Amino acid sequence: MLPAETIILFMPAAILLALAPGPDNIFVLTQSAMNGRLAGVFVTLGLCTGLLFHTMAVSLGAAAILAGSGAAFTALKLFGAGYLLWLAFKAFRAGRADLAGAPPRASPARLYLRGLVMNAANPKVALFFLAFLPQFADPARGALIMQLMMLGALMVVATILVFGSIALGGGVIGDWLRQRPGAQIWINRAAGVIFVGLALRLLTAQR
Fold first, then answer.
1. What is the mean pLDDT of residues 120-138?
2. Model pTM?
């Protein structure tokens, strides 16, 4: 069980980390602007499921294997970058096709999957969790696996609070832009550029 002082120390750090500009919160913002605030919420839920995946990986030691294997790191990085480039292609194509009407709405399941893949396929998140979570765990308090799982759950709570707020803000921006003639094409093009940028950032990531 985590003591209260550990939780009090951990939560502000987790919230500040979620607030720091990065691929995940930028992804939530663009999806909310393109598809509405509810889309951002489903993407956030997918991202948080990815955080639970990384928490389990750290708890069970899989992240340590990833940290020591260049081939595994590269393979996961290429998969994540490829998925982002696929989303960029779809965004650019939608920008050309949807000038006459409202943008198509992705299903909640697809939005959730986008968030899940975006987070789970980023090896930097696994390595970050491997470095960050154990700092708040203490073998003297009991099983480390349980402590790490609880810390991961707290990280999810902090992420939902921050990314949920970003989703609501991005939805407002998207609603405002969609009231302007031709704005949707610029939303989609901007999102496509952002996806390409995130893919390049992931491709150049080092362990």
1. 79
2. 0.70
